[in-house]
Every structure is written in C-alpha cells, then in structure tokens.
Amino acid sequence: MSVLTAPAVGRSERAGITKGYRFVVLTAASMAGIALLCHFALMLWAQHEFSSPESVVAAQSMMLAHDGTLYYGLRDYPYTVNAYMPLFYLLDAALIKAGLGAYTGARLLSFAAMLGIFILVRQLLWLYTRSKACAWTGLILCASTSLVLSWGTVGQVDMLAIFFAMLGFFQYSRYAVEGKPTLLIAGACVVIACFTKQTAIACPAAIVVLLWCRNRRSALLFAGGVGGFALAAVLAINAITHGRFLSNTLFANLNPFAWDKLWTHVHYMLIGSGELAIIALLGFGALRRHPGKALFLYLGFAMCVLGITAPKVGSDSNYQIEATILLVLCACVSLDALDFFPSLMRNSKSWVTLLQLPLAIHLVLNFRIVEPFLVTRFMHERQFRQQVAAERPYFADGGRVLSADINGVTHLRGYLEVEPLIYTLLVRGGRIDPQPVLRDIAAETFSTIVLYRDVNRPFSADLELLAFTDAQLDQVRKHYQLVAHIPGPYLSGVFVYKPAHRGGQ
C-alpha cells in the first residue's frame, strides 16, 4: 500500500509547494504593481521637485526650449552648468514644445525608461537561464525595489541612461549566447547611454572585456568603433558650442569629494539591497560554466563607477541605481546556478532553499519603505505649493531674481540667473569670477533675492548647503532687507530679501 501511495503523496506535496510559490509570486507582483501605480499617480499629480537637481534639469530644458541654448559659458550670466550629456535635455525640450510641463515631460521619460528596464531584466534573465521562474522573480524583485521606483519617477537623466546601457548589454548578450549579429546595435545603444549620462561607462567597459575573452579582434573593433564615434561626436559638439560642452560636462562637473558621502551610500545600499548581495555572493562559486557570470563583470564595473563618484559633493542615492539593478540580476542568476527553483519545487531539504529568507527580507523592507516615502513626497508637494504661492507676489515686479530656491524660480521665472551650489563650488575652485554677481548685489540690481538662511544669523558650513560666497552674502546684508520668511519643506523655509534703498527698487 505504501508503495502505491508514496508517489501520490509526493505529487500532492509538490503541487502544494507549486501553488504556494505561485501565491507568493502573485502577492509580491500585486504589491509591486500597487506601489508602481501609486508612484505613477503621485508623479503626475505633483507639480514641484522630487529632488533638487530635477528643478535644475527642468529649468535648463525650459531655457533650451525657449532660447535654443543648452551649454553656457562660465564668464557671464546665466551662471548655470548643464552637467549632463545632451540627449535627455533635447527630449525634455521637445516635450515642452509639444505642450507638456518641464517636470511632467522629464518624469514621463524616466518612467518609460524604468518600464523598459523591467522588461530588460526579465529578458536578460530568460536569455541567461531559460528559467521562467528566475525571469519573473527578477522582474518582481526589481519592480519592488524602492530605490528603482523612487528614481523612476524623477525627471533626471539616470533611468534613461541606464535603460540604454542595459539595452546595449542585452544586445551583446544576444550575440554572445545566441550568436545573433547584434554587436552593432549594442554599440549604438551604449553610445546613446553615454550621451545621456557621461558616467554610463560600466556597460561598454564590461562588453569590451567580455569580447576580449572571446575574440580580441571583435573587442578591438567594438572599442574602436564606440570610442572613435563617441570621441568624434564630443569634439564636434564641443566645437559647435565653442568649448562650452566640455566645460560644462567635464571640467565644471568635478565637484570636490566628501568621504562621509561614501559611507552614507554604503549604509543605504546595505539596507536596500544587502540581501541581494548575499545571494549573489553565495552563488558566485557555482557560476564557473554559467553564461550569467557575464552579469557579474558588468556589476563589478558598475560598482567601480559608484565607488569613484559616490563621495562627490552633491551625490545622492540615484548613483546606486545601476548597481542595484545589476544586483537583482546577479542574485537571480546565482539562484539559478544553485538550482534554487527546482529545489524549492521538489521540497528539498538543501540549504539552498533557505535563500527564501533574504528574498523575503528584501521584499518586506522595500515594501515597508514605500508608504512613508510616498507620504513624504505628498507632504512636500503641499508645502512646495504653499511656498511658491507665497513667493509669487515678490516676483510680480518682473525684475531680476537671485534665488537659492531653484524649484520656485523655475516655476515663477523658467530661467536661472545663477545656480547657487555649483556656482559657489566653482567660485571656490577658481573657475568662475565672483565679481559680476558681487557688483550686481551691491548695486541692488536684483529686485528679489531668495535664500535658505537669514544672513544675520549663523548658518551651517555644509558644502551642500552653500549658496553664494561670504563676500556676496555680506553685500546682501548691507544692501537688502528681509521682507518675508516663508515656511517650506527644506531647512527653515526660504527668506526673501528686497533692496534696502529706493534706487534698487
């Protein structure tokens, strides 16, 4: 009797495990979908910045749409640095001309790129593992990662650059795994990625090394083609802009280092994706003959780029996006190499099935972040609306504005006279002459000055809170008077100054 019933019990047990796995997957996918929809709805409803650089990008895209100028010199107004490559600005400016708001258009670009990344994660995992369970697990892990969701709704260049980089790696993978003639497409994609964000170099570096291990001639042709075309394009754009392109994207973008930023990044990454790193490391040894080890090389280069750029003043968690997505891919490839999914389905007692725990922890931690994060964004949006509405009367005279509140000046002017943080860093580095702005403040040329501080009180010396030099702030103190203190989401709100003498009004 036992001989007859044992297989039936085994089949029943496996069926129960399969049903339980499907329930967990569907639950996680549903929660990820709800989180995605909430982010999307808030993205469309919100009219103000989710991050400070988002306002800078929006203002610069508006200036491009209205004036046709993208990269500015550093010797005269406007003192603003277009820190990124041109593609995102051009697309956002086109959407502005089509009638979309600068914030909305940029966010839609990022959101579309994020959806494309989700598809690429699934396609890459299917290509390297031929496991549907692995591919769907990777998609759900990526779509539930709070870092990806939060930055996928911000109008900055990161998501679009990473999408094109990953698309390039996918096309290379089709060549390497399936023998498809897609290297040319891969090269085009990585060039587009680099012309969206200049630090999108991890992917082409990984492809060159992988090609070198297969066929040195192909590696040299790929590197020469991609590098030669990119160099020619850079020199051409730099010539057309009379040197302003490299001045903005390279020389003015070398912010000073603050090493405590690196530890902040490490701390955040351990919380947000430390579980994925554990799984990836545990499965690394089993990847000797697994084609998915190529993803680990890409991850290695992405981590190098992160390590070099993370300590920079002004860096934020968006610097971690590419590495985090690659951790999802590498963790899933490790699960496949360790035979995790078949072991789970047959109710194996192997230690490998215990990897359910870090997967569950990753999902729970990231889902728990979603609600307070969305609530914070919602509250900030309400505060921004009140702050900008309160600032509006002080901008009504149409005069020149010097403002540390980029979000406000973007909405009320659509044009930057001075981008305060980068301007101050470049003045401190000797790359910008502070005298023109100093003279205009002393002459009360600006009809309104908005700062995040009361110039008559001590203020933090944090580099990221700098706005103008001490000498310029001294002139504000002498020639302007505080007329309003408006509460807002940052620090103590904003302080509005007007000229103290009749001649400046």
Description:
- With 505 residues, this protein is mainly alpha-helical.
- The protein is 66% helix and 4% strand.
- It has a 4-stranded mixed β-sheet.
- The chain has helices at 2-45, 52-67, 86-97, 102-129, 132-144, 146-151, 158-178, 183-194, 202-214, 216-240, 244-249, 260-284, 293-309, 321-337, 340-345, 356-395, 406-412, 420-428, 435-442, 470-479, and strands spanning 401-403, 448-451, 480-486, 494-499.
- Helix 7 packs parallel to helix 9, helix 9 runs antiparallel to helix 10 and helix 13 packs antiparallel against helix 14.
- 45% of the residues are buried.
- The chain folds into 2 domains: 2-376, no CATH class; 377-504, no CATH class.
Number of strands: 4
| Structural class determined from secondary elements | mainly alpha
What portion of residues is helical? Answer: 55-70%
Q: Count of DSSP helices?
A: 20
Q: In a few lines, what is going on in this structure?
A:
This protein has 505 residues and is mostly helical.
State the main characteristics.
20 helices, 2 domains, four-stranded mixed β-sheet, mainly alpha, single chain, 4% strand, 505 residues, disordered N terminus
What is the fold's blueprint, element by element?
Layout: H1 2-45, H2 52-67, H3 86-97, H4 102-129, H5 132-144, H6 146-151, H7 158-178, H8 183-194, H9 202-214, H10 216-240, H11 244-249, H12 260-284, H13 293-309, H14 321-337, H15 340-345, H16 356-395, E1 401-403, H17 406-412, H18 420-428, H19 435-442, E2 448-451, H20 470-479, E3 480-486, E4 494-499
Parallel strand pairs: 1-2
Antiparallel strand pairs: 2-4, 3-4
